[in-house]
């Protein structure tokens, strides 16, 4: 493709809107503007230049700010849909069927639809990830597409600009000095601009004063930070980078820590404290009588000796003792254990007497550990109880009559026992739940008579390890840094030229904050007696004097 | 006087000061006489700012004394958070005032702050003890920075409102006129809420009901306004109290719905009265006050306040929030409704900034966007806290 040759003789790449050398507008569009679009003055943007191959088309799609904004808005709207109903992550149901039922029961047919459309787990849907990925691609493409030409145009700035460039700036001035001799005007401007911390370049009687150029790179720096952050988030999907496990541990128990090989944890005590305040209005209104003050698990962390058999608990070395509290996790070796949940007085053990229904005589007692039930409980040689099935959180029978469990937590234990007794060496089958016994044959001789429960406090801990944290941190930091650079500083440029006859032409541009550049202009105008500038975008009818006059008449 | 009483008094002082300052600004702008009008306006304007600053210092005094008394940053329940938001809003107004020296901004900023503080006062004001998850310095840092960012962002809506009051032609029928009036009507509804709550409070209205909650557990609740909507399966416990007119299912909170409906009734009555007495739209009434406003300047103020507020909001509502969430729960992000709405707010203002890069999205359109942004912030404060229950829910 041919370059565009400007009247001044300079060759500009195709797509350039404003000549890089003299600043003349090159396109018809630019020529028709009262105020030039100064974004990437003097350089071509790739997406505005090529539009032939499929790659160009994809590139142009993602580089468009309109598309970028559309993607941001779509992400925003879609995200809000996920807050209409509770997300699945906050629903306490053991399995898929339970969750489906939850949405239908709690929110009716709308809830069912919501669940079926996948909105109940919206942020993990593949299309949501695709949306965010497209946003990321858009940021990358747009930044490359515009960043490079911007950098070029900022580096190759000429001091002297053509009249057609100067006159198409938003703030301009033209005329003679208001008082005194005009031979030193440009020197005076230079002196004053330097005092105002501008970088000043001169070419004879032409001058370019510039300030805060680095702030133009702010958006590109913040976009880079965003991309690094997004990459960090994506890495969570790869194995070995992220651990998210949870465990329940009873007081007095020592257990292997899931996801943290070779480590064991002992729960010495779980502590729950409440504030002893007088109930507040809010508490009374909601019928709450105590406000929680502290959830704490006192633990001992053990590590297995290096030569130990995996899973064995006899060669444990104490690593540390700690009190895990909310906001104060146990941290070790890149892992952290968080206090997440607790159960006070959780059912621990249930005891039954194997009893003859007619005589009421017991053949012996069976105590079942509800978290770790055994297959078989032997009372003596020919008396034993087999635990055929166990439903820790029994929730009724399904359509086929099979018992169901909601969760693995022993909230409402139910059992199918096979009772082997001298009278029935093949056993008698009995379904036992709290206050409910079902016998398939209906005429058992023996029953499992409930005789007692034992409870204990349990602590629910979460184990997390996240190797991406440093990446996220760096990304976040770069993002904020770029944001501050782009927002709290701005790029101001003032061009001034004095002609043979002493007349002065001035033009000023800033990417934001016109208020402040005008203050700078006021200062040099007064100091060097420059002609008064005007803001071409200020509508004539807006000026205050006119308004006042109208009011009076 | 105990520290907590002093704190309450300081808040009242702040409220009155803002009220006085609003009137002063209104007066300073309205002065019409040709001779030295500019000077007089400046003088009254300066006094108005001085009074605003005094109010702000009193407000800050409330915040600090309450902090000392309760031992934690007073941002832990609806009353405290909303009051602090009002304080930051005034602070942001003062900041922008000293950058641009336009008192007219206070014309919208101070009444909105007054409404926010007045609305906050309708919530229980006792000091509440902190639940474990709130006992973290990161939480304090996060909430304060996020609220500060939101209030600076809100200034863009303040500037936008003034811009539109001048820019929208209220003589001609149209969408813009309709929506502008709708916004002002909404502000009157907040007044309605304050009036209703205050009236029934002074009258000492109280009725107790029992109901069955979402989990099928029987609970009790006290209504301070006559029950239009009853809770799920409610029974009236207080003798002689009226039975709810309509009963709602368990996933709707009957009391909150009742309060909303009462506010709408009262607010609408007030609005109709205003219209009947003045025979004008509220926008028409306000228009003379903003006649001299320079639209270019207010557009720039709107843009600048988003530019200043956006990084602060990003820092507080996203970065600090993630650091705290990582510390409290081991995950920097959990898609809790409050988190999602912080993200939505952030995305919205990102869109706002990018739209301004393209032509045609400055001025009028930008002002409307700023108002939508403020609506999202208020939604996040009100609806997400009170209706969509999540980890951050205050009620
Ligand atoms: C949510 C994600 C994003 C954030 C937080 C963000 C942030 C920003 C900020 C703060 C600015 C500076 C705006 C101003 O100074 O007024 C900016 C500029 C810009 N952004 Fe983004 N951005 C995001 C996504 C995107 C996307 C998807 C695109 C793709 C088209 C994009 C393209 C641009 C461009 C072209 C600029 C102008 C750069 C310049 O002035 O030279 N951004 N961005």
TrEMBL record, chain A:
Pfam families for this protein: ResB (PF05140)
Example of a GO biological process term: cytochrome complex assembly
Parts of the chain that traverse the membrane: 58-85, 126-148, 220-238, 469-489
Location of the protein in the cell: Membrane
Major subcellular location class: membrane
Gene Ontology CC: membrane
Keywords associated with the record: Cytochrome c-type biogenesis, Membrane, Transmembrane, Transmembrane helix
Keyword Repeat: no
InterPro entries registered for this protein in UniProt: Cyt_c_bgen_Ccs1/CcsB/ResB, ResB-like_domain
Membrane topology recorded in Swiss-Prot or TrEMBL: Multi-pass membrane protein
Sequence ranges assigned to domain ResB-like in this UniProt record: 65-441
Protein name: Cytochrome c biogenesis protein
Protein species of origin: Ureibacillus acetophenoni
Automatic annotation (TrEMBL), chain B:
Record's keyword annotation contains Chaperone: no
Molecular-function annotations in GO: heme binding
Protein name (database record): Cytochrome c-type biogenesis protein CcsB
Gene Ontology biological-process annotations: cytochrome complex assembly
Compartments (UniProt record): Membrane
GO cellular component: plasma membrane
Keywords: Cytochrome c-type biogenesis, Membrane, Transmembrane, Transmembrane helix
Major location category of this protein: membrane
Domain Cytochrome c assembly protein stretches: 87-392
One Pfam short name: Cytochrom_C_asm
Topology within the bilayer: Multi-pass membrane protein
């Amino acid at each position: 493709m041919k370059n565009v040759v400007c009247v001044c003789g300079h060759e500009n790449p195709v797509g350039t809107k404003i000549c890089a050398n003299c600043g003349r507008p090159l396109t018809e569009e630019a020529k028709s503007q009262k105020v030039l679009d100064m974004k990437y003055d003097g350089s071509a943007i790739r997406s505005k230049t090529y539009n032939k191959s499929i790659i160009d088309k994809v590139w142009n799609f993602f580089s468009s700010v309109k598309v970028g904004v559309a993607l941001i808005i779509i992400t925003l709207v879609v995200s809000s849909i996920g807050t209409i109903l509770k997300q699945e992550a906050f629903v306490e149901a053991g399995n898929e069927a339970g969750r489906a039922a939850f949405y239908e029961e709690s929110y009716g047919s709308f809830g069912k639809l919501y669940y079926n459309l996948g909105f109940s787990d919206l942020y993990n849907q593949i299309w949501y990830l695709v949306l965010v990925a497209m946003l990321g691609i858009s940021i990358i493409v747009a930044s490359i597409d515009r960043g490079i030409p911007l950098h070029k145009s900022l580096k190759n700035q000429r001091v002297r600009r053509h009249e057609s460039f100067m006159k198409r700036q938003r703030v301009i001035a033209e005329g003679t000095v208001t008082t005194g001799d005009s031979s030193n005007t440009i020197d005076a401007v230079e002196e004053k601009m330097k005092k105002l911390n501008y970088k000043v370049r001169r070419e004879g009687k032409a001058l370019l004063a510039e300030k805060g150029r680095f702030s133009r790179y702010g958006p590109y720096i913040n976009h880079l930070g965003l991309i690094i952050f997004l990459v960090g988030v994506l890495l969570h999907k790869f194995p070995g980078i992220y651990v998210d496990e949870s465990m329940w541990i009873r007081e007095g128990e020592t257990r292997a820590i899931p996801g943290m090989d070779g480590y064991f944890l002992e729960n010495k005590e779980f502590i729950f404290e409440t504030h002893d305040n007088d109930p507040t209005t809010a508490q009374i209104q909601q019928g709450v009588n105590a406000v929680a003050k502290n959830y704490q698990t006192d633990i001992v962390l053990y590590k297995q000796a290096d030569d130990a058999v995996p899973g064995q608990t006899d060669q444990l070395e104490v690593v540390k003792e700690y009190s895990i509290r909310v906001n104060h996790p146990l941290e070790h070796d890149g892992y952290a254990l968080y206090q997440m949940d607790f159960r006070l007085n959780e059912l621990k053990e249930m005891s039954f007497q194997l009893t003859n229904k007619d005589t009421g005589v017991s053949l012996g007692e069976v105590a079942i550990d509800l978290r770790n039930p055994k297959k078989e409980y032997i009372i003596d040689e020919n008396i034993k109880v087999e635990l055929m099935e166990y439903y820790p959180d029994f929730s009724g029978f399904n359509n086929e009559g099979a018992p169901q469990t909601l969760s693995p937590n022993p909230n409402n234990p139910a059992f199918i026992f096979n009772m082997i007794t001298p009278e029935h060496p093949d056993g008698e089958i009995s379904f036992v739940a709290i206050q409910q016994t079902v016998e398939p044959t209906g005429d058992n001789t023996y029953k499992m008579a409930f005789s007692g429960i034992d409870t204990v406090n349990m602590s629910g801990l979460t184990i997390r390890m996240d190797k991406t944290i440093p990446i996220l941190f760096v990304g976040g930091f770069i993002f904020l840094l770029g944001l501050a650079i782009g927002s709290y500083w701005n790029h101001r440029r003032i061009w001034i030229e004095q002609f043979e006859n002493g007349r002065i032409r001035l033009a000023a541009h800033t990417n934001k904050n016109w208020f402040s550049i005008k203050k700078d202009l006021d200062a040099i105008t007064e100091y060097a007696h420059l002609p008064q500038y005007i803001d071409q975008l200020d509508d004539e009818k807006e000026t205050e004097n006119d308004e006042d006059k109208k009011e009076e008449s | 006087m105990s520290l907590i009483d002093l704190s309450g008094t300081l808040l009242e002082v702040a409220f009155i000061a803002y009220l006085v300052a609003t009137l002063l600004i209104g007066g300073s702008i309205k002065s019409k006489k040709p001779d030295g009008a500019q000077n007089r306006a400046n003088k009254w304007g300066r006094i108005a700012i001085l009074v605003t600053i005094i109010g702000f210092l009193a407000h800050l005094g409330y915040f600090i004394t309450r902090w000392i008394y309760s031992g934690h940053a007073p941002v832990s329940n609806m009353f405290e958070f909303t009051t602090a938001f009002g304080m930051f809003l005034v602070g942001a107004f003062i900041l922008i005032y000293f950058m641009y020296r336009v008192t007219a901004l206070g014309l919208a900023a101070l009444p909105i702050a007054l409404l926010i503080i007045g609305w906050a006062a309708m919530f229980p004001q006792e000091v509440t003890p902190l639940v474990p998850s709130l006992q973290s310095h990161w939480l304090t840092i996060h909430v304060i920075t996020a609220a500060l960012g939101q209030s600076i962002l809100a200034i863009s809506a303040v500037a936008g409102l003034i811009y539109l009051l001048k820019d929208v032609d209220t003589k001609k029928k149209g969408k813009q006129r309709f929506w502008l009036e709708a916004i002002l009507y909404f502000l009157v509804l907040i007044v309605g809420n304050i009036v209703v709550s205050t009236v029934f409070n002074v009258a000492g209205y109280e009725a107790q009901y029992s109901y069955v909650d979402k989990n099928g557990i029987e609970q009790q609740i006290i209504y301070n306004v006559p029950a239009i909507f009853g809770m799920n399966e409610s029974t009236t416990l207080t003798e002689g109290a009226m039975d709810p007119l309509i009963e709602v299912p368990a996933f709707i909170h009957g009391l909150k719905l009742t309060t909303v409906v009462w506010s709408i009734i009262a607010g609408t009555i007030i609005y109709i009265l205003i219209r009947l007495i003045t025979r004008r739209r509220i926008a028409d009434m306000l228009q003379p006050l903003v006649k001299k406003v320079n639209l270019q300047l207010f557009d720039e103020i709107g843009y600048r306040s988003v530019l200043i507020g956006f990084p602060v909001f990003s820092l507080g509502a996203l970065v600090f929030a993630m650091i705290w969430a990582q510390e409290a729960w081991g995950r920097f992000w959990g898609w809790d409704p409050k988190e999602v709405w912080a993200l939505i707010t952030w995305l919205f203002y990102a869109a706002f900034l990018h739209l301004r890069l393209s032509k045609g999205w400055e001025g009028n359109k930008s002002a409307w966007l700023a108002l939508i942004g403020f609506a999202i912030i208020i939604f996040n404060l009100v609806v997400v806290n009170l209706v969509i229950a999540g980890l951050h829910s205050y009620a």
